[in-house]
Amino acid sequence: MTDATPQPERPRIPLTQLGRGQRARLDAGCMSGLPEHDQCLLRAMGVHEHCELRVCKPGEPCIIQVERTKVGLSGPVANQLLVTPCDDPGAC
Q1: CA-angle at 86, arms to 35 and 20, nearest 5°
Q2: Rounded distance between C-alpha atoms, residue 90 and residue 31, angstroms
Q3: How many CB atoms lie within 10 A of CB 3?
Q4: What is the pLDDT of residues 51-77, one digit of tens each?
Q5: How many C-beta neighbours within 10 Å does residue 21 have?
Q6: Given a cut of 90, is residue 26 above it in pLDDT?
Q7: From CA 44, how far away is CA 23, in angstroms rounded?
Q8: b/e string for 52-63 if b means 16 or more Cβ within 10 A?
Q9: How far apart are CA 48 and CA 38, in angstroms?
């Protein structure tokens, strides 16, 4: 018999609240508040909803790594991106 206890929903927080080395998954719909031009640029660099990322450098600029690409984000853009932190390597 398996434990069917529902897991608590993980908190969504602004990307700017993560520290160096922390990993997270970008939240669905969080880019909708950005101008279309910014959304297109982020997607072209591999930053899209549900992608897994790691913070290389918090602050201004906020540097993240998505797959093998590092991307620098302005503070205001990073603050608008909501993420779900990953506690374990397989959690994302």
Answers
A1: 75
A2: 24
A3: 4
A4: 999 999 999 999 999 999 999 999 999
A5: 9
A6: yes
A7: 21
A8: ebbbeebeeebb
A9: 11
- Domains annotated for the chain, with CATH where assigned, are 33-86 (2.30.30)
What is the Cα–Cα distance from 23 to 36, expressed in whole angstroms? 26
Closest CA to 84 of 30, 46, 40, 41: 30
Mean pLDDT is highest, among 1-5, 26-30, 32-36, 68-72, for 68-72
Q: Report how far residue 69's alpha carbon sits from residue 46's, in angstroms, rounded to the nearest whole number.
A: 8
Compute the mean pLDDT over every residue in the chain, rounded to the nearest whole number. Answer: 88
The residue length of the chain stands at 92
Query: For residue 78, what are its two tokens?
Result: 């990073």
Is the previous residue joined to 61 through a cis bond, with omega within 30 degrees of 0?
yes
